[in-house]
């Protein structure tokens, strides 16, 4: 048992007090985990576009004040009553999509978008409808069930995945969102077949994960599409066979980029992945 088990922990966190305001580094209080909860010492966190999207006030579920962040990795500090799958010292990655393995969604072979704690998570709370974060006497909301922009966080035990202790924590944090989103879209959702042609719009973390998945699936052509050509070398490293900047294509008058792709890639692609989150690109 850790020396801090059962105690309130004071630690640093990046707090979003309101939408469109800069994050503020604050000393916050993190309460001990309750039943079926785990307190985690966060060692690494990445930044996802969803964090910025919420901070900018665009997320309809956005709540303030809040501790953002959902791509993290760390070590279990303490566990609450009834937790059997985790022990102090385990290396873990928080999950914004939990796995209760009991609800209709978890039991359905077509999806794993667990709904067991969806309502409370969307309301910024842990499953019992309360928060473990306070700052200057004010309650802070949880974010996506993770809140990794804090040195310590508390998550539901179904919102946590144990990882191999030899895996580098500074890298596996990306498994919490970007890599699993892109890689899973290829192998689990679309089930891309060997010999397919694949086009990927947006060469950020999700796009690179799609490319990695398409290569693993045996796609014969993987086309990376982005306006920022400095991303092309990374895309090719992960498996893109070629990359295109739409702005550099000399289109005939009245011809669209879509029509150009159809003409130059044998009628188009077997699979296309939009990895930007831009409705116009879609």
TrEMBL record:
Q: What are the required cofactors?
A: Zn(2+)
Q: Please name the GO terms that the record assigns under molecular function.
A: S-(hydroxymethyl)glutathione dehydrogenase [NAD(P)+] activity; zinc ion binding
One cellular component term (GO) for this entry is:
cytosol
Spell out the PROSITE patterns in the cross-references: ADH_ZINC
Q: Which Pfam families match?
A: ADH_N (PF08240), ADH_zinc_N (PF00107)
Record family assignment: Belongs to the zinc-containing alcohol dehydrogenase family.
Q: What name goes with this protein?
A: S-(hydroxymethyl)glutathione dehydrogenase
Native organism is Caenorhabditis japonica
């Amino acid at each position: 048992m850790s020396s801090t088990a059962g105690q309130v922990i004071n630690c640093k966190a990046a707090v979003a007090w309101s939408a469109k305001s800069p994050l503020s580094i604050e000393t916050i209080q993190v309460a001990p985990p309750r039943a079926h909860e785990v307190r985690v010492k966060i060692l690494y966190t990445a930044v996802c576009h969803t964090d910025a999207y919420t901070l900018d006030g665009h997320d309809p579920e956005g709540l303030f004040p809040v501790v953002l962040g959902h791509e993290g990795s760390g070590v279990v500090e303490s566990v609450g009553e009834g937790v059997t799958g985790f022990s102090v010292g385990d290396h873990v990655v928080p999950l914004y999509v939990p796995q209760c393995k009991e609800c209709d969604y978890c039991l359905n072979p077509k999806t794993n978008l667990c709904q067991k704690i969806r309502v409370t998570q969307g309301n910024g709370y842990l499953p019992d409808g309360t928060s473990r974060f306070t700052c200057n006497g004010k309650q802070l909301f949880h974010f996506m069930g993770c809140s990794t922009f804090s040195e310590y966080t508390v998550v539901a035990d179904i919102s946590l995945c144990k990882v191999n202790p030899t895996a580098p924590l500074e890298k596996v944090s990306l498994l919490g969102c970007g890599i699993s989103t892109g890689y899973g879209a290829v192998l689990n959702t679309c089930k891309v077949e060997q010999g397919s042609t694949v086009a990927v719009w947006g060469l950020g973390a999700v796009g690179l994960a799609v490319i990695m998945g398409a290569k693993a699936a045996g796609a014969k052509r993987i086309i990376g599409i982005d306006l920022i050509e400095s991303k092309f070398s990374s895309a090719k490293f992960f498996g893109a066979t070629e990359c295109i900047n739409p702005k550099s294509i000399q289109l005939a008058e009245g011809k669209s980029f879509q029509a150009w792709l159809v003409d130059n890639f044998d009628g188009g692609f077997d699979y296309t992945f939009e990895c930007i989150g831009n409705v116009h690109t879609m």
